[in-house]
Amino acid sequence: MNFFWVLSGQKIKRIAVLVVAVFFAAGIFYAEKKNIQVFLPVETGPEAIYSVETDKKQLALTFDISWGEERAGPILDVLEQKGVKKATFFLSSPWAESHPDIVKRIVDMNYEIGSHGHRHDNYSTYSEEKIREQISKADHILTKLTGKKPNLIRFPNGDFDKRVLRIADSLGYTTIQWDTDSLDWMNPGTDKIVQRVVSKAHPGDIILMHASDSCRQTHEALPEIIDKLRDKGYEFVTVSELIAGTKVKTDPIE
């Protein structure tokens, strides 16, 4: 958007100065004088990471868990049987607190654990105080259960706004989204889950899957997903390894 001022007379000059001051205070300023243009961008603050730009054929398998006890075990079984040493699990803290045995298994298998918040709700609808409370509560529970403070967070429903991102950042968290959504939560059929993930996967990808009980087909699709991605030359890494020292993408690939 371009802003131009044609000044003629002292009164218009005063108005122009006022308009410039208002936009400057808002972090936006664009002026033209003697063919010189100046643009000061609005400060964006922290952003969510969807993938990374890399030539390496690496990607991250990620699993959200917010409820249930029947699906996490079979998914961990598949990862173990297939020799997948690295993956990232985003755990809802109430679920983690009520399933310490499964959390321990994830920890013992050396998988990365990130926060999935406390209440499974849209945090963008919360006050700043409540956002901070929910992140902090999950932080305390997950740190106690795993012995390590998480530094990655994926918000429930993938929902956030600039306030949520800013508060998470102030609490030491990087917000992680995804570029490839398996849509396993829709239970569309094993073949469709496999086809969607394998066809969309790309170097630097973060793949979203779930290990909650509502996702009944993920553990059935996972073996073929792993095999086909390996056949394409992909290596599985944690989210932290994927984003370390690389240029992150803060917008999903269409």
Automatic annotation (TrEMBL):
Pfam families: Polysacc_deac_1. Keywords: Membrane, Transmembrane, Transmembrane helix. Residues 57-237 form the NodB homology domain. The chain crosses the membrane at residues 12-31. GO terms for molecular function: hydrolase activity, acting on carbon-nitrogen (but not peptide) bonds. One of its GO terms (biological process) is carbohydrate metabolic process. One of its GO terms (cellular component) is membrane. PANTHER family: GLYCOSYL TRANSFERASE-RELATED, POLYSACCHARIDE DEACETYLASE PDAB-RELATED. This is Polysaccharide deacetylase family sporulation protein PdaB. It comes from Planifilum fulgidum.
